[in-house]
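Protein: Cytochrome P450
Species: Pisolithus microcarpus 441
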Amino acid sequence: MVGVTQDYFPFGFGKHRCPGRFPAANELKTMLAYILVSHDVKFEGRVSRPTSIHWDLNVIADPTVRVMFRKRTCN
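Structure follows.
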């Protein structure tokens, strides 16, 4: 996520790349880890992962699929 290549550059490229990309990437990973540890996550009405949409060179998630979150309870 923090590597700067011409294939993937959400934080810029070359000498103009974002100096805050390292803490930003760590913050995103921390938030994702918190969600996965403290919530049950599933797709509404599906057993398997929905098919991705291929548009030009992009691969995106199906925007019509709903994701459901339920906070886990401690026993």
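Remarks: The chain has one domain: 14-71.
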